[in-house]
Amino acid sequence: MAEDRQVLQYPSQTPERVDKFLTFKFPTYTRSQIQRLISEGFVLVNGGKPRKSGQLLEAEDRVEIVFPPPEPLDLISEDIPLQIIFEDANVLVVNKPAGMVVHPAAGHSAGTLVHAVLAHVPDLEGIGGKKRPGIVHRLDKDTSGIILIAKNHPSHIWLQRQFKSREVEKIYLALVDGKPATREGRIIAPIYRDRGNRQMMAIAPEGRGKNAVTEFEVLQNFRHHALLRIHPITGRTHQIRVHLSSIHIPIVGDKIYGLKNPSLPISRHFLHAAEIAIRLPGEKDKTRLTTDLPPELKRVLDDLQPEE
Questions:
Q1: Percentages of the chain per state (helix, strand, coil), in multiples of 5
Q2: Which CATH code of 3.30.365.10, 3.30.2350.10, 3.60.15.10, 3.10.20.600 fits the domain covering 84-164?
Q3: Domain 4-67 - what CATH class?
Q4: Residue 113: strand, helix, or coil
Q5: What is the pLDDT of residues 252-281, one digit of tens each?
Q6: 61 is an active site residue
Q7: Helix, strand or coil for residue 233?
Q8: N or C: which end of the chain has fewer CB within 10 A?
């Protein structure tokens, strides 16, 4: 794959850092990734290398950036069955089962969704990182449901821009212990990484953390539980799980943020990414994709007694 060279002209009369400007223009890249490209000589301002990442741009400055081709993948594809919801030349949409990790990480060097996708799309470009080719967004290991994979660089940019600008509508289904005080609600509480356990997230003190907003609606009440339709406005790590736990209705089976001993016979937490509405590459209107609850979660609901 050839390198990607882009030439831009800074349009504003107000000076701005070159790394901030490029991060805004190329939202699939983080500020640190842009800064690394600057330090490695892949960025030129008016034909010369910037003195630093924070160099200020002036009106009509010419900015040239080269995105080198992705590093060759050292991942080995695995013939793991995929439940495909939708596929075209640009996007693959699958229903991820609970128990499958999305991409390789410490302790998960095989059997991930990435390994399975590489067997289905052998020429998948290394967009999104060497260990996360094509991955646009993620789901927790024990969360099932819809996840999108971009098959090429333009599609990756197209989809991630919508996630970053919060244009994507995501709907989850969750069974919780207890019942919310109202039929509908909105949880607004910032989230940050737990200082006592770096593997967990927590509600942040005032003035700390990242803004997080979750809306919910009760679909059905049971004697000791409630089935919720959840619409996360933001997309923070573990957001739904942390927010529901914070109002004392943790997700059934969530041993990290809920009861250590599940209230129902379940081997995972009851959280499923059921719907997503997004503009597919090149489309003006959103496409809504859906998937049913997996059988193990349906069985849990079938065994519950509805509230009288």
A1: 15, 30, 55
A2: 3.30.2350.10
A3: alpha beta
A4: helix
A5: 999 999 999 999 999 999 999 999 999 999
A6: no
A7: coil
A8: C
